[in-house]
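User: Could you go from structure to sequence for me? I need the amino acid at each position, not a summary. Structure tokens:
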């Protein structure tokens, strides 16, 4: 709960506490009783499709490799490659230039 940003401030905290008190009267509230948004997803590994190796990675190399894969998969179509990568076409063009990837 300490790591949650509480975008609704104290009112949101109060609402969560009230809800838990109603749902679990007289019981000890455990982490598994908390709503999903209060769980630290990174700590639990939820919503993560890539596990960072203990030795680390070279993020630029990973990004470059993903761009090359996207460009290959789309036969060098920048618009479709950008869509695959979840970035704008301009962002893809910038990265192609940054990593000196010939199209």
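Assistant: Here is the amino acid at each position, in order:
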């Amino acid at each position: 709960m300490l790591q949650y940003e509480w975008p609704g401030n104290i009112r949101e905290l109060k609402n969560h506490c009230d809800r838990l008190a109603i749902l679990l009267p007289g019981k000890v509230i455990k982490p598994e009783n908390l709503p999903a948004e209060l769980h630290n997803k990174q700590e639990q590994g939820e919503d993560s499709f890539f596990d960072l190796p203990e030795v680390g990675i070279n993020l630029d190399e990973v990004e470059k490799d993903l761009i090359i894969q996207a460009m290959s998969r789309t036969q060098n179509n920048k618009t479709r490659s950008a869509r695959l990568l979840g970035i704008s076409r301009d962002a893809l063009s910038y990265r192609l230039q940054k990593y000196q990837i010939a199209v």
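One structural detail worth keeping in mind: The chain has two domains: 9-44, 59-98.
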